[in-house]
Target: Glutathione S-transferase family protein
Amino acid sequence: MMKFYYYPVSTYSQKVLLALYEKQVSFEPYLVNILDQQEVEEFRRIYPLGKIPLLIVDNQHLIPESSIIIEYLDHHFDSGTRLFPAGNYDEIRQMHFLDRVADLYLNNSIVTLMFAKNRRTAEVDEAKRCLLYCYEQLNRRLQGNSWIMGERFTYVDCAIIPPLLYAERHMPFQEYGNLLAYFQRAQARASYQKVLADALPLLTAMGV
Model:
């Protein structure tokens, strides 16, 4: 069985968990507390770079990086939700771009706001500007659509949904009706409910 190393409050871990639950594949979860230096050092014996998430298949093949893990899952498992369109290069290219937007402008900006007291004012202002841009673009894209790529849940949704949990807490997007409705749909989805069940108790304990 595949082994999945993750940390429940990590957006990149949540991204892969969403895909695992959507694909309905079995895996062994291994929680790595990235705030515990001893646990991180023990994890480095498995993966020297010490980055999560990490998927291990066939007891030896290591697959790092959230997007690469999801591509592997969708290619090797026909069960559950199809996360990539078959043979549509233009759509896949667009999905890869939106995945990078989630990484660079949603995730990074939210991290800056979460630790704003340790950041320069200019950094915080830039993070807010990037988030507003993301909100506007996503809100426009979701006009008439249930999910980011239309009516089909895809790997882009796996990337966009996790950071919205933190965005909602640090820079709410209530005035963006389409985006708000999208996040509410995500919260009602079985796969994301499983992710939240794992993450929320830890977030509460951390006071995040």
In short: Strands lie at 2-6, 27-31, 54-57, 61-64. The longest strand covers residues 2-6. The mean pLDDT is 94. DSSP finds eight helices and four strands in the chain.
